[in-house]
Amino acid sequence: MEKEEIGRPIDIFAERCAGCLICELRCSLKFEKAFNPGKARIRVLRLVGADTEYSVSFNDDCDTCGTCARHCPYEALIQEKKAKGA
Prior knowledge:
Alpha-Beta Plaits, 2 helices, 86 residues, 4 strands, two-stranded antiparallel sheet, alpha+beta, single chain
């Protein structure tokens, strides 16, 4: 059985990420009712010696609800707009 996505796709712009972890905190608050980045469905990792300073990824439990994108102050996560006429 495939996972059901409820939201529109989320684009990741890792070069804009500042590593603030607001996305992880908001995600964990929504789904786990606690500020616990370790339980978030999004993961921000600091990279050493890479093209971008941070790596951003989603785990298999992510339903693309968009909470992370709505709260990212750096626009590193942007949820795609609804297609016109859709």
